[in-house]
Amino acid sequence: MTKDKKHQLIPRGFDLYPYEFGSPQQSGAMTVVPLFGLDQNDKFTSPLSGLKLSRVTGYGSVELANPASAQTEPGKEGLAIVPLHIGYIQDQAQNHALCRSAFIAVGQHLMFSDACCVQQSQGGYLEEQQQWFFILPLPLRFAALQLRGKESYSKLWNDISLLNQQFGLQQRGHLEQIITRQRAYLTQYQSRFELLNGQTGALFFIQDKLVGVEIAPSVAYFRELWMPLVCFCYGVAAMYVEQMRLKDKAPQPIPFAAHTLTQLRQHLHQSRLEKQEQVRYGLAQTPVETFNVQEEERFCDFRLKTALGKNFAGQFVEESGQVVYASLFAKPEYLSQAG
Predict the structure, then answer these.
(1) In the chain, what are the domain boundaries?
(2) In the chain, at which end, N or C, are there fewer CB atoms within 10 A of the end residue's CB?
(3) What DSSP designation does 162 have?
(4) What is the pLDDT of residues 256-284, one digit of tens each?
């Protein structure tokens, strides 16, 4: 790992000049702004259909494979950029999540010896029909990023325990207490928010505060990453805020006072304008930071880098200075201000 010079990065989008913004979508405490950029489906394999969990050797060691070849269908034959903080639910083995992103070339396998176990004991195993992959909940992501390179399967248990405690659950290192037992609630976000044609990324807001920037290298890549992001990563943070609102008996949204279809359209139009203004204000209030950027890995012209700032952190991939993948998220102290 080599140190790069300090970069002046704006967490509300790095250099988002090539991207177009869609209309904001809101449900409860979460707002999502779609991003549309260059679709490089011919260069990269997608994380669900192309990237495979090949084996787990003991605790804390996970091997991923990019088995694509020139004969596979489009979208599955390119370089694999492992999504930051991807986790796998598997039958008859403890569930793990990764602390970092990485490159995996076509036909190659890569062992992550610094993965973290997200089940503290065998009692947390999931049933076979519940297998899927997720992205670590937003409140855990900075802790996981800091632990990249450290080989200790139990290293995230304390942070998981504290997160469970915040939700009023048993204080132990079992992440499935949230992402499995609350799955029915969390997966509602997939239907509340619409993944649009041509979408390659999104800005995520909690309580009108920017908390995440997610950019994928292709439409197919983001399509497969969408549900784990909106449901299990940012959905967990939104769910917590919404539960606190109910506990505190916060005022609920007031239905439109419309009696005709024309009036309803007028109310909807005005509501969208107000939401756009809230998003603009939220972006304007997002602090501009100086990030310490470290190069972690290279593959041909691609550079994987870690960005650490006062309020945001994450990893991103550049090709000739242009961002092709990014996962930048709010750190815990800044995130707490959104609650």
Answers:
(1) 2-336
(2) N
(3) H
(4) 676 787 766 776 767 677 777 877 777 77
pLDDT for 199 equals 97
**CA 98 centroid distance within chain:** 12
In 3D space, the residue among 14, 55, 236 whose CA is nearest the CA of residue 140 turns out to be: 236
C-beta of residue 239 within 8 angstroms of C-beta of residue 186: yes
3-class secondary-structure state, position 75: coil
Q: Could you identify the residue written with the tokens 């100086």?
A: 290
CA distance 134 to 228: 5
Rounded to 5, what percent of the chain is helix, strand, coil?
Answer: 30, 30, 45
Q: What DSSP letter does each residue of 102-118 carry, written as one string?
A: EEE-TT-EEEETT-EES
Q: Which residue matches tokens 């009696």?
A: 259
Place of tokens 């309020």: 311
For residue 14, what are the contacts with CB-CB under 8 A and spacing of at least 6?
213, 215, 316, 323, 326, 328
Q: Which helix H or strand E contains 225, and what residues bound it? A: helix 219-227
What's the predicted TM-score (pTM) here? 0.87
The C-alpha torsion from 224 through 226 and 232 to 233, rounded to 10°, is 120
CA 277, 279, 281, 283 torsion-angle sign: negative
Residue 107, φ and ψ in degrees, nearest 5 = 80, 0
Q: How far apart are CA 150 and CA 195, in angstroms?
A: 36
DSSP 122: G
The answer, yes or no, to whether residue 10 has pLDDT greater than 50, is no
- Residue among 311, 319, 335, 308 at smallest CA distance from 100: 308
Q: Does residue 130 register a pLDDT over 60?
A: no
How many Cβ atoms from other residues are within 10 Å of residue 211's Cβ? 29
Gap between the Cα atoms of 318 and 158, Å rounded: 33
Q: Pick 278 or 79 by higher pLDDT.
A: 79
